Amino acid sequence: MSPKTISVGVIGAGANTKLLHIPKLQDTKGVEVVAVANRTLQSSRKVAKHFGIPEVFENWEDIIFHDSIDAVCIGTWPYMHAPMTIAALEAGKHVLCEARMALNSGEASEMLEVSRMNPHLIAQIVPAPLSNKFDPTICQMISDGFIGDLITVDARITTGTFLQPDTTLHWRQDRNLSGNNIMNMGIWYEIIMRWLGPVTSVQALGQTIVKYRKDESGQRQACTIPDHVEILGEMAQGGQLRLSVSAVTGHMPMIDVHVCGTHGTLRLTDAGGELELFSGKPGAKKLKLVRVPKNKQNYWRVEEEFINAIHGKEIVTHTDLATGVQYMQWTDAVSTALRTGEKVKLPLDAVVQ
Fold it and tell me: Which domains does the chain have, with CATH numbers?
């Protein structure tokens, strides 16, 4: 007997949803994208026409409580992730939710709790994809002892541009929409956790260089989310983390991450214009390029993993809700450290199992 066709409703058709989630789901055998509800009825109709989606709804609740829909893909900004995910799970729907997971770790923990109360349903957070190609190789090299014991992971992440004060307020710069998430720091902590596990403490300094911006209506709004942060942490496995994230420092690589240990160093960087992995041992004059064969590279398969998990063919690894809670706890710890100037210990409460 062939598997039942999975009917998917889309709530929030942002850039990533239109670029990846909708077309990838539509390309998956046994999946039908049957409905969409975007921010406005007009934009919903536009998305539906472009992708051939048969039903358009004005309210997201209409998708959540639609009897013939099996799963929802949530592509909204973080402020709606928790209420929509919780409502969908309680209505018996599988959930694929865009990252970042929620406004804060409290909301994330509620999402995880409801998911655990409905173990027959799949709940997945869209993972950080930036290091996909290199993740298996980096994890294998670290596990095989290439770096020895970790001394430090030193990551500098930028937009590669100087401050741009005249651009319209982005949702990532609006705390009401983004919560404690700051730029793409959570993305990189999620990646670093894949390689090296979590941190046990956080200290942080931050700056808001652009003090205000105009919103879509032209009204001046204060910017309360930093656009430059420096974060220190103690790794659970030993060693330290230093993560610098900036949207205002020009003429720098957008990604430059060093993993330094007692026996070797790994470097993931786009300093040459393309993301590349380098490695070096003591005595080497310089780091050498690590060529990763295609059969050892990860690739984008979020929608495939989600549907396979619904059919019981695999479990969600990128990214399950417990991992999401971990990176949201770290995000909250950074926010607290910025506000108080104190070292914040992790986990914030009971260890996420």
Answer: 6-128+301-319 (3.40.50.720), 135-299 (3.30.360.10)
